[in-house]
UniProtKB/TrEMBL annotation:
GO terms for molecular function: DNA binding; DNA-binding transcription factor activity; phosphorelay response regulator activity. This is Transcriptional regulatory protein. GO terms for cellular component: cytoplasm. Keywords: Activator, Cytoplasm, DNA-binding, Phosphoprotein, Transcription, Transcription regulation, Two-component regulatory system. CDD domains: REC_citrate_TCS. The modification 4-aspartylphosphate is found at D56. It comes from the Bacteria. InterPro entries: 2C-system_Tx_regulators, CheY-like_superfamily, DpiA-like_HTH, Sig_transdc_resp-reg_cit/mal, Sig_transdc_resp-reg_receiver. It is found in: Cytoplasm. Coiled coil: none annotated. Residues 5-121 form the Response regulatory domain.
Length: 229
């Protein structure tokens, strides 16, 4: 799994440190640098070439939205998530026009932060696996803002099924081999019991996201192994 490199551009030192700790808690992400002034941001983006920029809006030496415009007109391929205390609707409009991946309002709690990064990884991996595009695949990307970011809230999940945990398990199967995974293996990866993992796996079978095969050994009961459909 490729490590996604993150550059944090935030003038508040305590907030920058908190966001750095958040990033480091999410598997597959690494903080490649922290910038506290916009004057240093352009050089750092050019030097570090991050995959993702976590960008504040208000700085002592400028405005993050101006930097976003500059980033979009440069040769940088970095994606951007805005993290700001600003709540103006006009700013949200400008952020959408600037192509930001997500917009989080401070203070940001870890659960929301983790959700944003998890969604970004899923988006990044799908985009980088594409070779040719069909209209259906294009539609999936452009529906992300309405379906993916809000989809879990609109979906009625069975009791005991947490959307964030479900996303983690789906991401695991996106990376899994042709050998499939057992409930015990999935539980070990997500830090849960085999029983809990199996509950999620059986739910994914009911939605046709996974399929199950029985693997027979020399003795004992056959092992249930789960595969992505």
């Amino acid at each position: 799994m490729k490590t996604i490199e993150v550059l944090i551009i935030e003038d508040n030192l305590k907030v920058a440190k908190a966001h750095q700790l958040y990033v480091e808690k999410v598997p597959g992400f690494s903080v490649t640098g922290v910038v506290n002034l916009l004057a240093d941001a352009t050089h750092m983006v050019d030097a570090l070439k991050p995959d993702l920029v976590l960008l504040d809006v208000y700085f002592p030496d400028g405005n993050g939205m101006d930097f976003l415009d500059q980033l979009r007109t440069s040769h940088s391929n970095a994606d951007v998530i805005l993290i700001t205390a600003a709540k103006e609707v006009k700013l949200l409009h400008n952020a959408l026009r600037g192509g930001v991946f997500d917009y989080m309002i401070k203070p940001v709690f870890f659960e929301r932060f983790e959700e944003a990064l998890t969604k970004y990884r899923q988006h990044w991996e799908k985009l980088n696996k594409l070779k040719d595009m069909s209209q259906e695949e294009v539609d999936l990307f452009f529906q992300r803002a309405t379906d993916s970011s809000a989809g879990h809230k609109m979906h009625d999940f069975p009791k005991g099924i947490d959307p964030l945990t479900l996303d983690k398990i789906i991401a695991i199967f996106d990376e899994s081999s042709e050998k499939g995974l057992s409930a015990e293996e999935v539980g070990s990866i997500i830090g849960a019991s085999r029983t809990t993992a199996r509950k999620y796996l059986e739910y994914l079978i009911s939605t046709n996201a996974l399929k199950i095969e029985l693997e027979y050994g020399t003795i004992g009961r056959p092992e249930r192994r789960y595969f992505k459909v």
